[in-house]
Amino acid sequence: MGRSSAIGDIQGGAGENRTTDQPASDGKHLSSGEFHGIESLLTSREASQVLKIHPKVLERMAQRGEVPALKVGKFWRYRATALDAWINSRLQSERQPCRMKTSF
Predict the structure, then answer these.
(1) CA 28 → CA 16, 37, 38, 55, 92, distances in Å?
(2) pLDDT in tens, 59-89
(3) Domain, as residue range, for 81
(4) What predicted TM-score, i.e. pTM, was given to this entire model?
(5) Are 58 and 24 in contact (CB under 8 A)?
(6) E strands, the chain, in order
(7) Alpha carbon 2 to its chain's center
């Protein structure tokens, strides 16, 4: 299962485009294949499941500004699209590999 599909599974398929003027199952009206409304936010638990880390670790990263997040009251919330973009930027960065080859 890839990253994008994992994020889509947690969102419950909210990013699907529909081509009819019928109301979505959550009551939001969609027309011309566009989603109208606010992107649903992930909780720390949901986002940490996608990233495979502990929720408290993710919250500390959010507090330090290392991961894109929004604090709503005392709770951290995460956009799935922002997390996906953050993951892709980390994969494409020119950071050193985790394991370095050594020669003896």
Answers:
(1) 13, 7, 10, 30, 36
(2) 999 999 999 999 999 999 999 999 999 999 9
(3) 1-11+39-88
(4) 0.58
(5) no
(6) 41-42, 70-72, 75-79
(7) 13
